[in-house]
Fold this sequence. Notes:
By secondary structure, the protein is mainly alpha-helical. Helix content is about 75%, strand content about 0%.
Amino acid sequence: MPKSTRKEHNLHRLQFIKHENIFKQQTFTQKRLQQVEKQLDIHKQQVPEYISVDLNRLSTVIPAFVRKGQLKLSADFERKKLLLKYDIDDYYLIYTFYSLNPTTDQIMSTKII
């Protein structure tokens, strides 16, 4: 579909996610996680031993913070997923319409004023 047609129907803002980009993001996240784990190990070695940490309490507090943060992310993800479905449907309908090779009069009659 030509760029002008995509822009005319506001489809130019769509950025379809490619499998390669997802793989790159996963690789980046794994590397970053490894870096953070190394930094945590270094920090643990530098902390004096007389500072005691209640690991049981810490192991319950951290997941609670993570869950609380994920509520907003989960809602945002669901909203974006729904918008993407509508965008894909719009793209498919417009693509199908133009693949029928409509005349200029037919195109003008479908425009919403």
